[in-house]
Amino acid sequence: VMQIDTNVDTVLQEAVGSSHELEQVSGRMRVLEEHFTAIDRLIRSVNRIADQTHLLALNANIEAARAGEAGRGFAVVASEVKELANTTKSANQEISETLDRVAEAVSSLSSSVERSVAKMQQSMYAIETTREQASTIGAETSNFADQLRHSLEAFHRLDESSVVVDNEVKEINTIGKTFAYLLELMAMQTRGKEPINPLERLLPVVQQSTFRATSRFTQSEPEYVLKHDDILISATDSRGVITFANNCFYEVAQYEPGELVGEPHNVIRHPDMPKAAFGDLWNVIKAGKLWQGYVLNRGKFGRVYWVKANVFPCFENGEIVGYISIRTKPEPDMIRKAIEAYRLVP
Asked: Which residues contact 38 (CB under 8 A, 6 or more apart)?
């Protein structure tokens, strides 16, 4: 629309220039017509003089005839004057006819120019109207574009909301399955006095270890401290590939809902976490038991957060088909103990 308005403005400027030129031509035509009128008056005067000269020559011939031999020379001159008058009148007649034709052509051209000027003015008015309409169309188009953008934003928000709602429905379904899996796990659990806390299980390893990694967990990073009502739930297949994560999980981990499905769960693992801790995790859950521990994770945009993780296997027909993890806010003193222990194991 802006291009149309620019083009219309260019055409309007050219039309104004052409209109001015036509008006100048029309003015010159009127001056030329006035000159033709003056010439016509002059020719008429010359014709009257020629007629009078012709009459005088005729009278001179008559007087010369009366004078006889004495007036013969005068008669010759009178005849030449008469002939000159006839020639002048004939020439004037041709000039007059030519001027009449030229004047008629000039008059016709002048009328055409005046009509062209009138039409040009009408065209200028139409162009000006078109430009105003184009400006109106431009404003309306811009307004429509704004409304369309707002509509698209609303649809986008609606689409995002539908993703969140869909994820919440999946969360309810996962929670329902979690109870069933826990009941089955309790029925199969035969761990006796084996400790659940990995810090207790790692204690013998820590006491005998000569490994030291004092630089672990010392890097200054933005941290999010879980609130008491933050409950992060995720489910994976038997390989540890994420099949579901609830909205709280996505929010804390700085991902969009659904973005982590199909990704390995260790995508959020902090690099300072020791391999021994996750080796212990896999040994326990593959044995069909509940694992509980303290884990430092890192979000998509670098924000870190500690969680107290409870991970257990999901059984179907006695076979492990996946794992469910429930993460909550850890106790500060347990985080300190976990850091001390994790610096002493590879």
From this structure: none
Question: By three-state DSSP, how is residue 325 classified?
Answer: strand
Domain boundary residue, one of 131, 152, 173 = 152
In a domain? residue 205: yes
Asked whether residue 138 is domain-assigned, the answer is: yes
The answer to whether 47 and 92 are in contact (CB under 8 A) is yes
Query: What is the SS3 assignment for 278?
Result: helix
Which amino acid, one-letter code, is at 10?
T
Q: How many domains does the chain have?
A: 2
Q: How many CB atoms lie within 10 A of CB 47?
A: 16
Q: Distance between CA 255 and CA 278 in Å, rounded?
A: 23
Task: Find the domain containing 145 and state its range.
Answer: 2-152
Residues 111 and 201 in one domain: no
CATH number at residue 133: 1.10.287.950
CA angle 110, 94, 80 (to 5 degrees): 150
Contact call for residues 312 and 301 (beta carbons, < 8 A): no
- Do residues 134 and 8 touch, judged by C-beta distance below 8 A? yes
pTM higher than 0.90 for the full model? Answer: no
Give the integer Cα–Cα distance in Å for 87 and 31: 31
Tell me the mean pLDDT per 10 residues along the chain, length 346. 54 62 68 71 69 65 64 58 64 70 70 69 68 65 64 57 55 55 54 61 78 93 94 92 91 93 95 92 90 94 95 87 92 93 92
Residues of 301-326 as b/e, b for ≥16 C-beta within 10 angstroms?
A: eeebbbbbbbbbbbbeeeeeebbbbb
Same domain, 114 and 247: no
Nearest-angstrom CA–CA distance, 134 and 4: 7
Give the whole-angstrom CA distance, residue 245 versus residue 201.
28
The identity of residue 122, as a single letter, is Q
Residue 71 lies in a domain: yes
Separation of alpha carbons 346 and 342, rounded Å: 8
